[in-house]
Amino acid sequence: MTSMKMLALPLLITLLHSPICLSVTVSSSKPKVEVHEHTDAVLACEFKTEKDQSPRIEWKTTGKEAAFVYFNKKFSGRYVGRAKIEGATLTIHSVTQKDSGQYRCEVTASQDRVNFGEVTVTLNVLVPPHVPSCEVPSSVFVGSDLELHCKDKLSVPPATYRWYKDSKALTATADTPYSIDINKGTLKFKSVSKTDAGMYRCESSNSVGAPKSCVAQQLKVTEYPLNMTILIAGAAGFLMLLTFCCICVCVCRRRGCCRKHKKTKSTKSFNPPPPPPPIRNLKNYKQTHSFMI
């Protein structure tokens, strides 16, 4: 047993002092980056090599619009003049929403046994609220249903919405005649009344910047010009009259066709009168004609 321990000790020392694998290693101290719009974004990429002291460094965007960011020690595309490299760390100046996405740092060390390594960094550019688009009709009839819309498509993260009537915030409860969806920005009325008339505006907000509001718009609620019962009765009477007229026209046309058919049939069956009977008494015939001469 003692001899086995004596043999294992030198072997363990040899393994500790010998490299396990000659390879490049690539990592990121911050794989997810969130920055505000128009600020600088730092995409960290750290690497280690065993032999190669000047490895090739590349940055690429991934996804459907994959493209080079940094290749052959040069920037390309929209990154020219607005990005820099320090070691393998990429810094993009004055980022916008178009810069959001996934970036891949690739390091190639040709002198290492395992000569390639990569790491992915996700960039999310935060955008404050913009002035939302508000859809408020100018007028509606009493008793009709109504839906107002509000949308801010540019804010990141997505905005939530609040509706105001006559500069007072609306809060939907079980007793209110309307409902509000703060995520979709809709304000719904099941049956509009005269008291719902007023000035309406919508406000969008998120965690990045100050809320933004659209210009207030006037909503008018008016009565129907005629009683609905009279309108429905008039429409029903008109339909009945129209149906009666159609039936009369069809009947008249059928009768006219029958008369024409009968007349044509009697004309075709007409036979001319028979010729006069032949003269049987020739003697009397001659005497009669000689007397006449």
UniProtKB/TrEMBL annotation:
InterPro entries in UniProt: Ig-like_dom (IPR007110), Ig-like_dom_sf (IPR036179), Ig-like_fold (IPR013783), Ig_sub (IPR003599), Ig_sub2 (IPR003598), Ig_V-set (IPR013106), JAM2 (IPR042625)
TM stretches of this protein: 228-252
SUPFAM superfamilies the record matches: Immunoglobulin
Signal peptide: 1-23
Alphabetical UniProt keywords: Membrane, Signal, Transmembrane, Transmembrane helix
Domain Ig-like: from-to ranges: 19-115, 129-222
Stored Pfam families: Ig_3, V-set
Any one GO cellular component localisation term in the record: tight junction
Any one Gene Ontology BP term: leukocyte cell-cell adhesion
Protein name: Junctional adhesion molecule 2b
Source organism: Dicentrarchus labrax
